[in-house]
Amino acid sequence: xxxxxxxxxxxxxxxxxxxxxxxxxxxxxxxxxxxxxxxxxxxxxxxxxxxxxxxxxxxxxxxxxxxxxxxxxxxxxxxxxxxxxxxxxxxxxxxxxxxxxxxxxxxxxxxxxxxxxxxxxxxxxxxxxxxxxxxxxxxxxxxxxxxxxxxxxxxxxxxxxxxxxxxxxxxxxxxxxxxxxxxxxxxxxxxxxxxxxxxxxxxxxxxxxxxxxxxxxxxxxxxxxxxxxxxxxxxxxxxxxxxxxxxxxxxxxxxxxxxxxxxxxxxxxxxxxxxxxxxxxxxxxxxxxxxxxxxxxxxxxxxxxxxxxxxxxxxxxxxxxxxxxxxx
Length: 328
Prior knowledge:
Distance between the termini: 108 Å
Oligomer: single chain
CATH architecture of the domain at 97-308: 2-Layer Sandwich
Largest sheet: 5 strands, mixed
Number of strands: 8
Number of helices: 7
Mean pLDDT: 81
Radius of gyration: 39 Å
Helix content: 40-55%
Strand order of the largest sheet: 1-2-3-4-5
Structural class: alpha+beta
Shape: globular
CATH topology of the domain at 97-308: Heat Shock Protein 90
Strand content: 15-25%
CATH superfamily of the domain at 97-308: Fervidobacterium nodosum Rt17-B1 like
CATH class of the domain at 97-308: Alpha Beta
């Protein structure tokens, strides 16, 4: 009996030891497998990181891709050299101003139940009290010009109003009459104030458009004339024609520019112009609708007084040129 019990105990111990060994082997295999999996995942992540880093290095940066414009020789901005004399300086402050409008209107009923109308609208630049005190001479000049614009439009209004009434009475009325004096400001800071006055008369018998431009030094109200800004008129005329003939502008624009280049070469021809921070705008006033040409100062610096350009306030606006681009 004792032998039988001893044999059973021995078998139980052997079975228990065998079970523990098997469990230990399974645990070891499982741990090894998990470790191998983690190592594989780590290696994969490192590989992806290296791939991303390589990709970033090979792709050109924004500055590198924009340094060479994609234009073909003879058809783009590669034909023109940027001047190193042009310096951008954020050393100005914006002038505080707003537009005030003076309106007049008169309407008469027509025989068919409509109304015939004449309307006059004249814009005026209004400075803040602080700007009037700081730039008094400039303010007085602007006030004088606004008064003159309003006076001219009032005279035209008083002339055309009886004609409107007469046309309604005799049944010849067809179109309302509009008189508009708009002011477009291109630059207004503590250095330069440049703007254009667009005067328009539209009626059944009239369709007149005219533009008068002025550019002043803000500190003392001294006016800049075309010869003050363009230092080499003949060279500038050649540059102007080349700039537009090789641009992406449409054929109408190129045709207007070719005709306008003749005016630039004529020393006796008065040129209307305004300036922004980066360019001079030339105005062709001989067309039915006055046309503006933008010439970037950074390309035409050899023919301009570049000290007039480049000084900007902290916030300012720029417009695209004939290439639909802003070179700045």
